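Lab notebook, bench 4. Still working through the backlog of constructs that have no structural model yet. Next entry is a single chain of 217 residues. Request: give me the structure tokens for it.
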Amino acid sequence: MKSINSSLSTTALRLALVGLLASFVSAVSHAQDERGKQLYVNCVACHQADGSGMKLLNAPAIAGLSEKYVAAQLGKFKAGHRGGDAKDASGLQMRPMASLLASEADVAAVSKYIASLPSKPIASTIEGGDPEKGKALYMTCQACHGADGAGNDLLNAPTLLNQHDWYLVAQLHKFKDGIRGSNPQDTTGAQMRPMAMMLADEQAMKDVVAYIQSLSK
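Model written out:
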């Protein structure tokens, strides 16, 4: 009888400890969520409260990007591996904002909050792109970004869905011109440079972006 009571007491203790641990984890997670929301206030002026971005300020849509990708880009901006080129005007805008994040915990918190924002369809603004031609060009992109454009964290490839077409074209230009992805410390950015260089001209960029936009519909 004593053995049974002892076993029950041990089980009850274990359950109590598991409950306490779960409560602690939940409290920490809630605190991180609140911290991320507070930190995101500094991002609202450009990226807007819903993370949909703003063309006037060259701010892309960031809602729904993965935590890993957002954290990686913030780290690059903080270190100057991205946005350090004098020709990268919009990238230079982000460096001081990223520097406001004082710790890795802050980067993690705001990255988690951004990832939690629901991604929304965005209207096309660029004319003259041919999605049928772009589909063939996208074949070189889908190995990393996926046939559906949803991206792949394991390959450091962000989702391309529900992103502004003007932003995608601008980034392709930056990669192709070496404004982005040429810093020796930006190994993931360097993966994109040869891909962008395969696009012969502005028309090819418009075509592949037109196809990417069709994936969001």
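Notes after review: Residues 148 and 215 are 6 Å apart (CA to CA). Residues 125-217 form a domain with the Cytochrome Bc1 Complex; Chain D, domain 2 fold (CATH 1.10.760.10). Flag for follow-up if needed.
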